[in-house]
Amino acid sequence: MKSLYNSTEIYNLFDTEAKYQNVKKHWEKLLEGKDIHSFLDISYGTGSLTLPLAELGVSLYGSDLTPAMLASGEKKAQKKRLPVQLRQCDFRKLTEHFTETFDCVGSTGNSLPYVSNEEIPHVLEQMDSLIKKGGYLYYDMRNWEKILSQRNRFYLYDPVFVDDVRVNLVQVWDYHPDDTMTFHLLYTFERNGKVFQKEHFEEHYYPVKRNLLLNKLKEMGYTDIQIRCHPAQFNKIDPQQADWYCVIAKKDPDNF
Length: 256
Known about the structure:
single chain, five-stranded antiparallel β-sheet, seven-stranded mixed β-sheet, about 25% helix, alpha/beta, about 35% strand
């Protein structure tokens, strides 16, 4: 099965200008009252979830495992004339690639569940080691408790239109006996009401419960742990019920 992350021309199709502006509003809301001037996204992808930070004046850094994603992310930044520094890196080995520290280190796009639950505490420790005194650790992800309780199989996206082509995306979720999941990403391309192209990709996830992450943050001495709906401007939605949520926590300035 070919990887979506090596097919960036398809991956980027749903990165519309409306989505970009929505992500920008998310960061504007989330950064209110926080002294964050530098940000490292350890799951940068093509930058769709953090590039707006550069527009807000934050010094943006990113890392990702896939060279094709980083190359696409670099082109996006250049097109918008926004500065970003990118490095290829497995987020389980951050300290092998970064020596500087940041006001905030984050993982975006539901990326932490790509590794096993046993590896999650180590990843958080790697992130923590790159955060300045009094800085912040951030992540966003799907609401796995909700997914596992409802066990829906189909997740539909609104179509996007590229010239005269309609692009549809449906995810089909397989639940496995070992508590992992496979997401099948099914793309169809239509012109004049007829499908002329189909693409199928798979992603494998290790659902992670909220308390595994929160307990590790507390163990590392993080305070002011905020759990928000994602995007954060949808603050009237209960994060416990939202499809996606995010967490931002402040590092104890005496714990460094």
